[in-house]
Structures are given as C-alpha cells and as structure tokens.
Amino acid sequence: MDLFSQYILGKIKLSNRIVMAPMTRCRAVEGNIPSSPAITYYRQRSQAGLIITEGAQVSPEGVGYVRTPGIYSPSQVKGWRKVTDAVHQSGSRIFLQLWHVGRVSHPDFQNGDKPVAPSALPVEGNIHTLFGKKKIETPRALELEEMPNIVNQFRSGAENAKAAGFDGVEIHGANGYLLDQFLRDGSNHRADQYGGSLQNRALLPLEVTKAVVEVFGAGKVGYRISPHFQRYSMSDSNPRETFSYLARELNGLELAYLHMVEHVGGPMIVAPEARLAKAIRGIFKGTLILNGGYDALKGNDAIQNGVADLIAYGSLFLANPDLPERFRKQASLNTPDITTLYEGEERGYIDYPSL
Question: Catalytic residue positions?
C-alpha cells in the first residue's frame, strides 16, 4: 500500500492516492469565470487520483481576491463544466472547493460595504484589490437573521457544482476564512447561539456541512481544516480540543474525507509534539487527507504507517503537471516560479514541462 495504490473514496474509485491540493491562482476572467487556460491547467494534472480545485466563491459576498472563480452564476457553471469534462475525459476525478472568505476581504469587493465576519474584530494583513494592495479593514459582525443565508449560499454553491459536473465538493473550513473564523475563539466573540462555547462556535460549520451533504449525498463532500494556521489574526485557545470536537461531530455526516493542512515542512513548520494529525486520525473515522510539506517519501511513509489515507500536494503539483509519473520514476522536479503564483496568465500556469 503506497501512493500508487488504488483507493475507494466513498463510492468513487481513485486510480492512486495522490491528490492535487486546492491552490488559488488568480487567473479567472471577467465575471469570476474560469479561464480557457484553466481547462488545460487541470487537464495537465489529471494523473492525480483526485483533483481539488482552487476555492470558488459561493456568492459575491464571499469574494476576497482579484480574479478568483466563483460558483454562483450560470456563466461560472458553464465555465467549470468545461474543466470537469476535460478532467473526466483524462480519467481523473475532481472536487470543487466551496469558499467564503468572510473578513479576509475589502469594501472594494463589496460595493463599498464592510466584509462580514462572526465578530467586528481588527484583522492583520493586506488584500490585493482591483485598485491595488490595501489593508484589511475591520469587518462587520453578521446578524443572527443572516445566518440562514450563509448556509444557503453554500447549498446553492453545491447545487451549481453538481450542475457543473463535479464528482463532489470540498468545504473550505481552513486558512482563516469564514467557517474557520466561526470555529476559533480568537476570531469569534459572539454572545448568541453561534458564539461562546465550542459547541456554539462549531454550529455554522456543521450546518453548512449538513446542507451541502443534502445536495451531493453521502461520500461526496469533504471538509478542509488548518489547525496550525495563524495568519489574518487567527488563533484559538485550545486548538486540540477545538478541532478534535469538529472531527468528532463530522463523523456522523457521512463525509468523503477530512482534509488537514499539517505543515510538516516549508515556511510554517510545526513542531512534532504540536501536530494534531495523529489525534485527528484517532477521532475521525473516515478518509483522512494530509497536506503540507510532503514529498514522495514522506507521503508513502504516512500511508504505510496508517497516518493518512491520501496525500495532497500543492506547490509540487503546480510546477510538475505529471507529478505522479515523476514520483514513480524518482525523476527530478521542476521548481515553482513564485513570481507567477498569482499572475502571469499562461506563464507559470500551463507552461511547466512534463517529462
């Protein structure tokens, strides 16, 4: 059993255990529609057993970055359909990541209105808007009566993803975005049923997940977490308790998987004693995907030792469209061009060489 073993994910058969991680690339065209090169970009990487797309906003309210695709308009659905058709023709499976950035936005994206969040707290960081780089402003707290609309935005996004031909969806509950903001006590200071206790803070993430599962059915919905993420003023007083509780509650929702960003290497290295993967593995009963600093050797070790079922690769897949083949042949790897991560059109997007 290794990275190249087949795997049954819910009711979906994967050709291997190598996952393409979701990566924002900022190549969408007007209307937040996936561009034509996006079709090539995903098709080139269809050696992956599973592709998870870049985040797609579930509503205009959820937008926080320039030129990122959405999943809330007919034109976006049509654009994504071309992507899913290309990936399926190449023999892979593809999930769409459902995204709402919450407070990690700017009034420039919101027709002058403040971005929404659990609580009106200041946020460290900057946003690249259509009018240049700007500081993230203090958001407004969502009103209690607005909460059903947030759930409906994710439900509608799932319905549109289904219409676009996706095999499933991943709910973005990581990286300091809206659902992560509600879950952690450093960003959620509410005093109603969506704040205070851990059970209350987890309410919105769980309501969203239930709504999305109702659309796609059992075994076709994933959820992503990043317990160690600290940018955008994110924090939690007890991350082990917080994320263990969420994993335990997700057990009953028949998910396809739980996707955890672990950061075993790179710029956010986490000390071994602080990593939560082992604890989460012992709690979550379904498929566990790990992501963050893995290479072929570390990925194989994690699978063979039962730490994870699937391994997701980000920057390595970005620069190596044929990453599984390179892993299999122990070939050299292309180095990502960081200057083209979020701009460059086709350069640094679909021009990385294959073997």
Answer: 177
